[in-house]
C-alpha cells in the first residue's frame, strides 16, 4: 500500500542519503586504489617534467647531475607507457574488491519509499537489499 506523503518524503530522504553514502564509499575506494597503483607513473612523469629544460627546469641537484633533457623525455615517455597496464591493474583490483564487498548491491530502489511492505533482507553473504520477495537467485554480476 502507498505511504503517506510525509512518510514518503522522509523515506525518500533516508534512501537518497544512503545511496549517496554508498556512492561516496565507492568513490573513495576507487580513489585510494587508483592513487596507490598509479603512484609509480605519477612519480616518473613528475620527475620527467620537473627536470626537462623546456617545461619546468628545476634547479635541484639531481636535475643538474643525473637528468638531462634526453633522460627527462625518456622518463615522461616511460611514465605514459606504463600507465595503461597500471590502469588495467587498478580497475581489476577495484572490481574485485567491489564484488567481494558487494558494494554495488547496497544501492536501494526508491520504490521502498513509495510503498509499504518492502522489506530489508540479506542476499547471499549479508549484502543489504530491498526486495518484496527477496529473490536469492538474482545476482548483480555473474
TrEMBL record:
Source species, domain of life: Eukaryota
Topology in the lipid bilayer: Multi-pass membrane protein
Record keywords: Membrane, Transmembrane, Transmembrane helix
Name of protein: TMM88 protein
Record-level Gene Ontology MF annotations: PDZ domain binding
Compartments reported by the entry: Membrane
Transmembrane segments: 21-49, 74-94
Gene Ontology annotations for the cellular component aspect, listed alphabetically: plasma membrane
Family: Belongs to the TMEM88 family.
Broad class of where this protein is predominantly found: membrane
